[in-house]
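agent> fetching stored inputs for the zinc ion docking request
agent> found them:
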Amino acid sequence: VNLMTLDIDWAPDFVIDHVAELLTSRGVKATWFVTHASPAVSRLGQCPELFELGIHPNFLPGSSHGVTPSEVLAHCMELVPEARCVRTHNLVQSSPILSCLLGETPIRIDASLFLPGETGLRPFRCRHGHQTLVRVPFIWEDDVAMLQPEASWGGDPFLGDGLRVVNFHPIHVFLNSCEFEPYALLKQSCPKLQDVSIEQAREFEWSGDGTGTLFDRLTSRLSASRTFTVTEAVSEA
Ligand SMILES: [Zn+2]
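agent> prediction call returned; pasting tokens
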């Protein structure tokens, strides 16, 4: 099963709209992990036949979501009251965070485990007291691919047995990033990513092979097959 996920990571609205349009035009389902409220995020919520919204809590110091795990999760659940799945920002995890998640939210699916390139995966059910948390690992991510000395944008991370969950960041799809530097320079020129204008972003677009060309190719290919959101994949498994 091939699953497309996206960590919104405070992307500006024109970037979210750009990626949503690529998915809707091809009828490809995706699970978006939401970091903030915006008109483009609301538009994603108006497309439940294709898009599932999960939360993307930031538990790091200085988080705009709050200080304690409880505060952070309460803030994120206000953003997406219907959310049933989570991927934490920067993949921060701990036993207290998972306990808080199960005790204080309706979230029962966690997609924060990164097992790069692993095959034969399936949703993993972890008993935790009276509750069960289903862990859905992901096997490929755009920004990790960029760190490889010879980043390859011509491959297909969906190839392989079992559950294949890939993760893209909308900003890297828009910039067609093949390395970090253009993104870092964009952030330098406008530290608050949400406020970046389309003109500013275009200055840092890459014209060769990169995250955007790969996303384009994968979504084109997925359009021919049945696709799932994370929650759908768990309930089918
Ligand atoms: Zn993130």
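agent> quick read of the result: Strands lie at 2-7, 30-34, 51-55, 85-86, 109-110, 124-128, 131-135, 140-141, 164-168.
agent> awaiting further instructions
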